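Field reference: sequence -> structure
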Amino acid sequence: MVSGNLRKRIATGPSTMRYEVGTGSTYAPVDLTFGNVSTAGYVAVSTTGSEHPSVATSGINTARSINRWWSVANVGTGFDSCAATFNFAAADVDPGADPTGFGVRRYVVPNWSGPRTGARTATSIQALGLTGFGDFAAGDVTTYTLNVTTVGSGTVSKNPSDPSYGAGSSVVLTANPSTGWHFVGWSGDTVSANNPITMTMNGNKNVIATFAINTYTLNVTAVGNGAVTRNPSQATYTHGTSVTLTATSQAGYHLVSWSGDTTGTTNPLTFNMTANKNITATFAINTYTLDVSIVGGGTVTRTPNQATYDHGTGVTLTATPANGYHFVGWTGDTSTTASSIGFVMTVNKSVTATFAINTYTVTRQHGGQRHGDEEPEPGDLRSRHQPDPHRHAIGRVPFRELERRHHHVDQPADPHRHRRPQSHRHLRPQRSQDLAPAPPGVGTGRAGPTPATGPVAPCRSRPTASCSTTST
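Structure field:
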């Protein structure tokens, strides 16, 4: 036993050390148990067999106490926490006092505090959770209660958390707001907006912690030709409020996307307010395609000639037929026969230009028939006028007909004659009286044979041609 100051070295790591100290013949050792020592150092311990000089402000009832105190001093030791057990003799206790109900008080000039009291016996008392040392005394301590209530959504923690606290004890209160809430302040026996706060227990205390729900702002910006409506439409929103944003584009525009504190293309957009938000809605002009197809021979030009067209762009299409073709008309998203059309792009369009090949009809007159041309069929022969049946009619045969007969009838009949066609210059002109009278049927579309040249060959031609004979 050491009557006085005993110093020992404390090694790193968990450590337990007994200090064999006392006064006179009274042994009053101290046991220190460290949770973890990070820096080795020294701790010195001594004890005094009387009341502490400053006990009057400690909250200890000096008539019901231990008439002894201990001094513990740290010299360079780094540690996280320590439990100290103070041993005393039964003779140190005031008559009638019960040590099992005592409390421990710690004095660091100029204040007393109340560490948490641990195990107690008739000859020992324990102080728990020490992070520093000083002077220690024990006895019946005047105790007070600390009642904490909350307003709003949140909790309050107390350190130490005991049902009662000795006079002069320090208690740390920490406010913990729920998600979406914030701490407003303390009221009651203390008024403060600080968090946490330290309470000195010098009486029974009632403290109120007030919490309030968070409120947020929503800033919405539109880029391009469009607008955004919000539901509900408010200046601020409390935490968790559901908000729907609806983007409405102007004619010919569309919503591209949302950006900022939320992204995507969903419209309407719904979300919960959990913070201040800035959101941008971006709009863009619509673009369209123009597909032009061609049927037949021809081309189509477009003005302007682009791959896509913005909404409202004016476009002109011009159809030009190829040689021997003509333009029929437009079909698809427009229908007209005008070769040049103009329209405004408001949707995707598909247009077809149709061209057709030209067709012709040929009409031949008998008087204009040339050598080698086809002649009308017999059924197509018509007389220019009907003759008088009582009058003897002499058929008139055109000079070309004589030439044709000469070529097709006379020449093949003579096998010794040269087969080269004879021109009319080799023919002897004939007077009308040299010709045989026309047989019956002249003027009805039929031609009879003549003595000089033989039968008149049928006249053949296309359906549109006409052939005629003349009677006098």
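Note: Residues 6-141 form a domain with the Chondroitinase Ac; Chain A, domain 3 fold (CATH 2.60.220).
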